[in-house]
Structure formats: structure tokens, C-alpha cells
Write a structure and sequence with these properties.
The chain is built from 19 helices and ten strands. The chain is an alpha/beta fold and about 600 residues long. A hairpin with a 2-residue loop joins strand 4 and strand 5. It is elongated, with a radius of gyration of 35 Å.
Length: about 600
């Protein structure tokens, strides 16, 4: 898969923030009121705690120094403590509600966007990596909100207040504060600009490591059969080593930023306190003013120091969410819909379910060899068709474009005279029961998988469908029967068991069109015979298309199509096709009377 060249830092920053925000803003808008209240409550709390309280402490020190009663000012300080605490708790309540809502909305957004991606997209991406990216896309919003509310807004208000207050009472100190804040912000922005690219690259390496990690675990049993554990582990160590190098670079830049900010904070405190000490010694200012300004300096220094930390966290929050935002923005591979089938089931009762391919062409990559070229054929309603041919002849492609998992380049595909491109995909697929070659079930109970075919199926209907498909193993093999969890991707089921469950799902769905891709490829001879009987007996009246390399499966069907180079070269019932096609007859002979090689 092609990758974009890394952009220089001055081009990355706007792309990162604008791209992520474009995908976040709807979730934030839905919770705008709660976020606004959070901002108000936290900033009012900071105002009472970090601004008013030091002023009252100044009064206390000055009143004690002058021999006056300081208790009134002290009571105001207690009031500031109480109000600050109450406002903080109100802020906590609002931020818990708003953050949980936003994370939930962003998780929904990520899954919805990924479900719209076509099969080509998933062929080019690690599932584990996508899970990692989507998790960061949602969860990093919490980091951005926390640091944006707790530090950035509070620091901004504190800086504005201190600048105004000091300019009014001590213009020279106010000027020092203004110069220092300006220098601090500029230095922070410059350092952030240079470290942003490092964060993006570190995040990408993290996703790659997670993807490889997931890929190894998913394929571990297969890899073990080739004694590949050591080689795969060594390869993973290289990948994780690359991630470590990029993380170190990003973290070194962060630590350099902290070191520079630490020097700036020290300079501020030394210069301001030196100036104020002389003012107090010259009787220009009181000891209370000195104490108040010391509190302000410490508060400002801590907040500005945290500002750098928070900008770093906000930046990494956006960069960690960036990869999924880019995926969601890319509409070139969004060929799917996330829609319920139409409530109007009239499509199922189209009287004529003839499937017509009219000069259909398709290739997997632009300019590549066409898998199908001007393919023409009418699959008559109610008939059962077998589709055979050598690997790469275009058999599976035929089904993919009929299901609109891939889009054909030219020509028309019609069902009952209606062009499938004019149908919502959910409605089109409601017409079709599909039995894949290797079903990959979600990790659910067997009963839940079966009811994918018919959600409101009764227990009797489910059991009858299982009996027709030869799924006796459900109650013979598993103590929990239909309540057995099949495991990730149906790992608890053998290949043959998974195919039989998929056939039972197709029986329950009762769609007018049946598509089967190698339905007996993983079955023993006895079960294959049972499935052949099920096909002919339980799908009577359905339009059926069956891909098979095992010709015994299609020999019982009404008609067999032999495909070569994306074209139908022969079509006839099995017995007739044996006489018409030399290549078909040869395939049949090899399967029914195999040649045993002698040493």
C-alpha cells in the first residue's frame, strides 16, 4: 500500500488539528452546553482560589502588620475555599457527563465509518491496528478536554487578571510579566511546532506495532505448524524497536521543552521578586503585597509550566486521533452503507428473480487484467446453477459484484429487470442468502449467529433449520447447545461445522436468491452428501448459484456454467456438459477416478 511522504512540521500541524477537529466537532457540538458549564464552573473555582484568595491574604498580612483586626478578611478567605470547592464539584459533574457522551459518540462515529469501507480497504489494513486507532480516536478526546479545560482556559484567565492587576498597581512589574508571558508562549509554540511531526510518526509506529502484534496472535496456531514462532518474534522485536526509537525522539523533544520552560520560570521569579524586595525595602510596597505577588508568581509559573505540559497532551491527543480521522475523511474506499433494509419487503416478492449480467467487466486494479470482460448470462428464476472453473477464472468475483462488495466497471446487473446499482445495498442483500467459503463468525452464542438469518425465528424454526443443514453437532458436541459461544471468528467450530451453521442461517433467512461459495469444501464425504440433498430439497423454488471445485456438489444442480478467462464458455446440465466440454470432462475424471502416482 502506498504511503504519503512525511510532511514538514509547518505543513503537518494544520492538517492534524483541522482533520481531527472536522471528525470530532459534531460530538462536541452535541455536548456544547455541558462543556460550557464545565468551563464556567472550573474557571470560577480558579478565580476564587487563585485570584481573590491571595488578595484577601494580602489584606490579612497588612492588617496584622498595622495592628488591625484581620478576621473579616480571614472569613472571606474561608468563603473563597468553600465557593471554590463547590464550583469544582459542579465542574466535575458536568465534565463526567460530557466526556462520557463524547467518547461514546466518537466510538459510534469510528465504527460507522469503518463499516462503510469496502472489502479492498480491509484487505490493506490490519484489524488490530484499526481497533487501536479507533480506540485512540475516541479516548484522546478526554485528554484534550481535560487539559483544555483544566489548564489552558484557567491559565488564560489567570494571565489576563495578573497582567491587568499588576499594570494598575505596579506598571513596571506588569511589564515584566507581559514580556515574560510573551516570550514563554512564543518559545512553547516554536518547540511544539518542531515536536509535532515526531508525535505523528510515533503514533503511526505505535499503530503498526499493535497491528503486527494482533496479526501474530490471530495466526499463531497456523504459524506454529511451520515452527515460525521464533522468526515471528524476532520480526516483532524489530518492529517494536522502530517504535521505541521514534518514541524516544518524541520524548527527548518534550523533555527539552520542559528544560527551557524551567529556565524561563526561574528567571521570572528571580527578576520579579528582586524588584519587589527593593520596593518593600524602600517602603513603596507593603509586605502583604510581596506575599500576594509571591503567590501570584508561583501560581502563574505553575500554570504556565503546566501550559507547556497541557499543550503537549493536547497535541499528542490530536496526533493520536489523527490516523483514524484520516481514514474517516478518505471517501474513496467507502463503498458500503450502514442502513437497515427497507421496511417495505415488496422486493422479496418480485415475481421474476431472473439475474441478468449484461456485458459486465471488472478488474481489481485500474489497468490490470480484467477478471470479467463483457460477461453475459441470464440466471433464470427458480433454477439451481453451479459455477466452475480454474482458480482465477472469475467465479468468486461474479458473486462479489452481485452482492456489491465490489463495484463492476461497466455493464449492468439486473434482478427481475431492476438494476442493482439503483437499490440500497441493504435491500439488495435482503434478497440474497450468502454462504461464504470460510465463514468468520463474530464471538457470539450459536443461537445469536443463527438468528442473523431471521431475528424473530422461533426455537422450533431454528432447530428445524439446523436439522436440514446437518448441524446435529450443536446439541451432540456442546453441553450448552445453542448457548455456546463460538469464540473469536468462530474458532470453536471446525471448518465443516462453520459451513453447516452458515447454511442453517441461509435456510432461516429464506431469501429468494441463494449464493454458495464452496459450501462443501471443508466437509467429509458423508456430510457433503447430506448438504447436496439439502440443496436440492430445501431450496426448491429459489434461484441458486453455487461455486464449487468439487464437481460432485454441482452435478446435482439444474445447470453448470464453465467459466474461463471471465467468460462462460459452456453451460448445460452436468451429464450434457460432460459431452460438450473436454476440460470439464477432464476435471470430472480427475476427481472421480484420480490417478495414483507410482514411485
Amino acid at each position: 500500500m502506498k504511503t504519503k511522504k512525511p510532511q514538514p512540521p509547518d505543513q503537518v500541524r494544520p492538517a492534524v488539528f483541522t482533520t481531527v477537529w472536522r471528525n470530532w466537532k459534531e460530538a462536541f457540538k452535541k455536548n456544547a452546553l455541558m462543556l460550557t458549564l464545565t468551563l464556567v464552573f472550573y474557571n470560577l473555582s480558579a478565580y476564587f482560589d487563585q485570584m481573590l484568595k491571595p488578595m484577601f491574604w494580602k489584606q490579612v498580612f497588612d492588617q496584622i502588620n498595622q495592628g488591625l483586626d484581620p478576621m473579616k478578611s480571614f472569613y472571606y478567605i474561608i468563603g473563597c475555599f468553600a465557593l471554590s470547592w463547590i464550583l469544582s464539584r459542579l465542574g466535575d459533574l458536568n465534565i463526567i457527563i460530557s466526556e462520557s457522551n463524547i467518547i461514546k459518540n466518537l466510538r459510534d462515529t469510528a465504527l460507522h465509518g469503518l463499516m462503510m469501507k469496502d472489502s479492498k480497504f480491509f484487505a490493506n489494513h490490519f484489524i488490530g491496528s484499526l481497533v487501536s486507532k479507533s480506540g485512540r480516536f475516541a479516548n484522546e478526546s478526554e485528554k484534550v478536554i481535560d487539559h483544555g479545560v483544566f489548564t489552558l482556559s484557567r491559565t488564560a484567565i489567570l494571565v489576563i487578571y495578573i497582567l491587568i492587576y499588576t499594570f494598575v498597581i505596579m506598571p513596571d512589574v506588569g511589564l515584566i510579566f507581559l514580556i515574560w508571558v510573551t516570550v514563554f508562549v512564543l518559545v512553547t509554540i516554536i518547540l511544539l511546532k518542531f515536536s509535532l511531526r515526531a508525535d505523528v510518526e510515533s503514533s503511526e509506529k505505535d499503530s503498526k506495532t499493535n497491528g503486527v502484534f494482533s496479526d501474530i496472535l490471530t495466526s499463531l496456531l497456523y504459524l506454529r505448524s511451520f515452527s515460525r514462532e521464533h522468526a515471528e518474534f524476532e520480526n516483532f522485536k524489530k518492529v517494536s524497536g522502530e517504535e521505541r526509537a521514534y518514541k524516544r525522539r518524541a520524548w527527548f523533544l518534550v523533555n527539552f521543552q520542559w528544560a527551557v520552560q524551567g529556565i524561563l520560570v526561574a528567571v521570572l521569579e528571580i527578576v520579579v521578586m528582586y524588584t519587589l524586595m527593593h520596593k518593600v525595602m524602600d517602603k513603596v510596597e507593603t509586605i502583604g503585597t510581596l506575599a500576594m505577588m509571591q503567590v501570584y508568581i508561583i501560581s502563574l509559573a505553575n500554570n504556565m509550566y503546566q501550559l507547556g505540559q497541557s499543550l503537549k497532551h493536547v497535541r499528542t491527543g490530536f496526533t493520536d486521533a489523527y490516523e483514524m480521522a484520516v481514514i474517516l475523511d478518505d471517501k474513496t474506499d467507502c463503498g458500503e452503507e450502514v442502513l437497515k433494509p427497507s421496511l417495505n419487503d415488496s422486493l422479496k416478492f418480485i415475481p421474476n428473480h431472473v439475474i441478468s449480467f449484461e456485458k459486465v467487466s471488472f478488474s481489481y486494479d485500474s489497468g490490470a487484467r480484467k477478471v470479467l470482460e463483457n460477461f453475459c448470462f441470464d440466471f433464470q428464476a427458480g433454477r439451481h446453477y453451479g459455477v466452475v472453473g480454474q482458480s482465477g477464472a472469475g467465479k468468486s468475483t461474479l458473486f462479489k459484484i452481485l452482492l456489491r462488495q465490489s463495484q463492476h466497471e461497466s455493464g449492468n446487473i439486473l434482478i427481475g429487470g431492476a438494476n442493482i446499482n439503483g437499490m440500497p445495498k441493504a435491500d439488495l442483500r435482503s434478497l440474497i442468502s450468502y454462504v461464504p467459503q470460510s465463514p468468520t463468525f463474530p464471538s457470539r452464542k450459536i443461537i445469536d449467529i443463527l438468528k442473523l438469518g431471521k431475528n424473530n425465528a422461533t426455537d422450533a424454526e431454528v432447530r428445524l433449520a439446523c436439522e436440514k443443514a446437518g448441524c446435529h453437532f450443536i446439541w451432540d458436541k456442546f453441553p450448552n447447545g445453542f448457548d455456546t459461544y463460538v469464540g473469536e471468528r468462530g474458532v470453536k467450530l471446525s471448518g465443516g461445522e462453520a459451513q453447516r451453521v452458515a447454511i442453517a442461517v441461509a435456510i432461516l433467512k429464506d431469501a429468494p436468491i441463494i449464493i454458495m461459495d464452496e459450501p462443501t469444501s471443508s466437509l467429509d464425504a458423508e456430510t457433503e452428501s447430506l448438504i447436496q440433498k439439502s440443496i436440492t430439497k430445501h431450496f426448491v423454488g429459489k434461484t441458486m448459484l453455487v461455486i464449487a471445485h468439487r464437481l460432485a456438489t454441482v452435478a446435482v444442480l439444474d445447470e453448470v456454467l464453465l467459466i474461463e478467462n471471465g467468460q462462460v464458455v459452456h453451460n448445460a446440465p452436468h451429464a450434457e456438459l460432460l459431452g460438450k466440454s473436454e476440460s470439464y470432462a477432464k476435471m470430472w475424471q480427475l476427481q472421480t477416478s484420480p490417478v495414483i502416482l507410482q514411485n
